[in-house]
Every structure is written in C-alpha cells, then in structure tokens.
Amino acid sequence: MNIPFRGTALRWLAAAVLLSLGTQASANTLNQNVSWTIDRAGTTANYRIVAYGDSIYAGYNGSVSNAARYAAPTVDGEYLSARWNADIETVRRTKSGAVASDVYQNKIVAERSWMQAASTRVVTFEMCGNDGLQARTAFKGQSGTCNYGVLDTAVNNCKTYVAAAMDYINANASPNVRLKVIANLYYPGYAADNVQSSCRDAATGATVNLRDRFLPVLARMNFWMCEYARQKGFQCADSFAEYMGADYDTNGDGRVDAVALRYVPGDTESAYVTRITSTLRPTLRDANTKFVTSTSSFDYIQSDDTHPTFTGGTVSAGLWGGTTSSGAPRYTSFTGGKSPIWNQFGHERMGWSLSTYNPATP
Question: Phi and psi at residue 35, in whole multiples of 5°?
C-alpha cells in the first residue's frame, strides 16, 4: 500500500469538500449526524432533544470527519438535564451546506422517526443560512446591472420551507413533545460586507453597498421565522439579537442592545425590518467582537467568518460516520439559568438562548 499517496488523496478529498462547504454556493452537502447523551449521575429517566438543520446545528468546524461536541442543541441538553434531573439524549440530524428545501425534505421529512420516538420532548430546527449565503455569493459575482431577484428568491424559499417544516413537525412529532423551537439567523460577515458591489443599480447607475442590500434580506427571513413560530406554536430563539447586539446599552435608550433587537410578538414585517435596518442599526456589531460589557468582548465566529465558535472538544461526524456516545455534564447546575461560559462562545450563547424556553418538567 502506498501510504503517502493515500494520505495525499485524503487531503485532496478533504480540501474538495471543505471548498464546497466554504463557498456555500455548491449543491454539495455533507451529512453530519451526532447523538450525544448528557449522562447525569444518579438518574434513570432519559429524554430526547431532536435537532434538524445545516452546518450550524451540526457544529461544523472546517472538518469533514468531526464536529463540535457541544453544538447549540447539546448545550441546551446540558441545561435541560439539570432542570429535569435526567439524562438527555441530543440527536442532531444535520446536513452542512444544505439549503432550506434540503433540510426540510432530506432531514425533517425523511428522518422524521427521530422526533416520533416516545422519549422526545424537544424538537428544534434551523435553516435558510445557506439560501442567504448562496444568494450573497451570486449577487457579489454580478456585473453590469444588479439583479436583486436572487435575494428575493432566498427570502421566499426560506418562508416556504420554514412554514412547511413547522407544519410537518406539528403533524408528525411525538405527542409527548413539550417544546418546539426554531433558531433564526445571525449575520456572518457583517463587517466584511461593508463594501460596494461590482454591479450597478438600474435606477441610479451607481454601485450599491453589499451590507445595505443584505441586511434587509436577512431581517425579512428572521421576521418570518419568528412570526411563523408565533402562528404555529413554536418558540423563536433570536440568534440575530444574541450575536449582533451588545449585552449592555450602547445608545442610551435604556435597553440592553441584545434585548432591544429581539423579535417582539405582534411586530409587523415592516416594523421589524425598520427597527433592525434603521432605528437600531447603529447598535449592530460584527459577531467576531461580541461585547458582553463595555470593556470585554468574545469572538462568536470561527476564522471562516461563518460558523459559531465552541468549546468542549469534537466528536466524529460526517464523512466517516457519526458519533453515538455519552458523557457526564460539564456543569450540573446553573446559577441564574446560565453556565459560567454562556456568553463566551457562539454555540454556548445559542444553546443558552434555546434553553430559555425549556419547560419546567418533562
């Protein structure tokens, strides 16, 4: 066996997969499924969280063979284990690089058996990030007259499949499910997108600021994720607010920025988009520098400027199969409902946000 050649071949394979995922513009996707049980000492009850999604819930970290052990759903499992004094199995059925239609059809629908188990108590999902990223890539590549249609298509696809996913989960999840929750989108590359387009607006003949175009698109997606959640019996964990706003009041309006940015039930699309893109826009910050106090910040985004940061090691997931294993919780209790690192990493923050909706009993 030619070992050096084999190593080279594997490196080429890994590079090819990473390239397709890094651009998010390819149809190529990578299943990254993990089942991890929070094994709490002295307990016998075992309940399940099922999480469907793309590379965010996968805990993608640039590898084709492993992912974050403590991606957001598993972080939530740790909170739930303490709240219920029970073992919590977190099942992540995810596909890195998948657009919303793919997550819906090939994860939520095709793998519905995971949420149908009698032990399932929480079903959560996230989607639409790759629809947005692919539209952004397509728009950045335009020359001549700008075609904004690719951005509208991303919004419409997101709305279609978010609503379909909620309807399907409502119809197919175990009757024992106590909580259904969606996580909306943060804005990766917020700082990097503050540049002019290569295309020109048909009306003005001028180039346009990419961030000015993309932010309203993201806001519309996020509004409908949370609004459909309100309509269809889901909760909405507002990742945009948690990532993009500081944990203190930067503009003197008497509200913590991250709280002020959250979707408010009863918002209209117009009111929400105006609040995000105009009224509170000066409070938005790139999530690479998430300010938790006026003098302290943490990096919520990995070096790819896309995926959340994490801690707690990795597990096998993806090209060579997925992990089904267990481990003791890192924390057995949470003062004030928050771990000591709840605001220090992207996945920890998202997991905490999901946990704020956890029911008191199973």
Answer: -120, 115
